[in-house]
Design goal:
alpha+beta; 2 domains; four-stranded antiparallel β-sheet; 6 helices; about 60% helix; about 10% strand; globular; disordered N terminus
Length: about 180
Amino acid sequence: MLRCCFQRVPARITALLLATSFLSFTTSLFSQKAPQPSMPQFSELSQQDRARLDQQRAIVAAAVKQRYGTPKLTKSIADLGPLQHLIDDKVFAKAQTYELQSLGVAFGDVLAAELPLRWVMVTDEYGTDPTLRFKETTVQINALTMISKRVETGEVVDLRDLLRQTREHLSRWPN
């Protein structure tokens, strides 16, 4: 009988050790911190980046000229009217993401003309894309997708209101 008890102890200890090891391993997995997103890295637009943005501007300029006879976009607040007409008239469908993002580029030019923003490239956990950077801060306005995301989700897009909201948002940051 004594022999039987000694034979069971090692099996119990083995099971206990295995359970403890498993719990320790599982706990260590859950206690590890999730990786924190890295700080965005900004760089100046390359010639290729500028060319890409210019191609997107050309798409919008062609649509504005064809639809409304507007000779060209001015990269100023005067562009809000024709850009808003393109949105209101649903010239670009929800599925035309590239064209909608091209509208975002044209709207971004208006934002850059009205606010202390400039086009740069940003690299972050999502990849590398053009963005509008506020002064020399890490604050960025993703004009590229500002319109497309709203159109794709069926939201009403009011460019004057987006300009106002952006101005308000940036006014909260120190100069």
